[in-house]
């Protein structure tokens, strides 16, 4: 459990520089520390083993996609909660994400407050339930 928003690290993994930058600004505006990665491989190599907080993970990326990144996190027993983001919102993608342990699946473009609520909920840094439903 995270003590406060200032203690929270949010790892943003997205291949789109504008999305990554926007999400990093949103995290900082909420008082969170944002660490960004342009691909799943970089996140896994640099931060996954010591990850605290949560991961905001794009599903559709070149190289390792978000589902493959989550699968590797699960295999390595890295218990950091994952919130998946994707423009592709179909039952199969949601089912696969849920099976791999995704805590929330949000469709792009993501609502800022819904994402912040989901982060607070999965990390225990906020008290209220999120304004969005977990993956079905």
UniProtKB/TrEMBL annotation:
Keywords: Phosphoprotein. Gene3D superfamilies: 3.40.50.2300. Residues 9-123 form the Response regulatory domain. SMART domains: REC. InterPro entries: Bact_response_regulator, CheY-like_superfamily, Sig_transdc_resp-reg_receiver. The modification 4-aspartylphosphate is found at residue 58. PANTHER family: CHEMOTAXIS TWO-COMPONENT RESPONSE REGULATOR, STRESS RESPONSE REGULATOR PROTEIN 1. This is Response regulator. It comes from Variovorax ginsengisoli.
């Amino acid at each position: 459990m995270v003590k406060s928003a200032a203690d929270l690290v949010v790892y943003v993994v997205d291949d789109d520089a504008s999305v990554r930058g926007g999400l990093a600004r949103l995290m900082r505006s909420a008082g969170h520390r944002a660490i960004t990665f342009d691909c799943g491989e970089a996140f896994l190599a640099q931060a996954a083993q010591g990850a605290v907080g949560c991961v905001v993970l794009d599903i559709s990326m070149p190289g390792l996609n978000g589902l493959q990144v989550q699968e590797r996190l699960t295999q390595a027993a890295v218990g950091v909660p994952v919130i998946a983001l994707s423009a592709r919102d179909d039952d199969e993608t949601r089912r696969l994400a849920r099976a791999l342990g995704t805590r929330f699946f949000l469709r792009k473009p993501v609502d800022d407050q819904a994402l912040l609520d989901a982060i607070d909920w999965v990390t225990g840094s906020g008290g209220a339930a999120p304004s969005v439903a977990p993956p079905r």
